[in-house]
Amino acid sequence: MYTADTFEVAKNKPTKQSSNAHPFYRHSQKAVNGEYSESMSLSIEFCSETSDESEPSWWAVDLGAIYDISNVVIFGRNDCCDERLSNFSIEVIRPCRNNSNWFEDSVIEVCYFQQAPTTILNAPCRKRIFGQYVRIRLSNPNYLALCEVEVHGTFIGFLHTVGFPYACGFRGHSYDGHNETLSSAIVYSDIHCTYICSYMKECHVADFNKKTSVCTLMKKKTGSNVVTNSDHNVFLVY
Question: How would you list the strands of the sheet with 225-237, edge to edge?
Answer without folding.
Answer: 167-176, 225-237, 205-209, 214-218, 181-186
